[in-house]
Write a structure and sequence with these properties.
Strand 2, helix 2 and strand 3 form a beta-alpha-beta unit. The protein has a seven-stranded parallel sheet, sandwiched between helices. 43% of the residues lie in helices and 12% in strands. The chain is an alpha/beta fold.
Amino acid sequence: MPSPTAPADSRTTPAQDPSRPRVAIVTGGSRGIGRQTVSRLAADGFAVVVGYAGGAEPAEAAAKEITAAGGRAVAVQADVADEQAVAALFDRAESEFGGVDVVVHTAGRMLLGPIADLDLDELDALHRTNIRGTFVVARQAARTVRPGGTIVTFSTSQVGLAFPAYGAYIASKGAVEALTLVLARELRGRDVTVNAVAPGPTATDMFLDGKDEETVARLAAMPPLERLGTPADIAEVVAFLASPAGHWLNGQVVRANGGII
């Protein structure tokens, strides 16, 4: 009796053909997790578009570091909540490098305060970036990313932890998670994965801002690994999702937090 035909390697996709260079857009790519993700994807051979909202100098420095090492990168300013600016960001990726294979949306804002006292104008500004911004970037990515590609959004492990004072931020990231799971299903048949990464306490400027040493130490002790995460820890998760090895993960929220439950 003839043996069954072996299935094709599901990790091999047209966009992952080494003869065609892969291209990544990283929003919020000038600092923190986004900055580390830019470097990590460039190390994997991606041409990288470093998206940033303000402060061109660190974004340009990130791009120059990559090109100095022999890679390909360009820094592009875009307000992620502005659909025209985001469309121009994607157009630049296509004109510079020929297409888009991976979109990593790390851009976001954090606002802390009790729900009872929160200024609603500040809430609107937060949600403009975190909810509308994610929607605008995800919409453009859904229209643009090539087969074999990946879309990665960013949530937070606070969605499950529900710390006091994080209500507005958690609400915005809960919306991001819902959007991500829906988009993964809407892209059926496209061979494009969509996942969210939800870091726990991670040593970024945004996380550390306004926290005293006692608070930081308490948060660092929460994971069983007993330390804060680093931007490099999170960038490794993103790199896995963007790689052929991670292409079977789809429609998931990856809580990259060292084991906090």
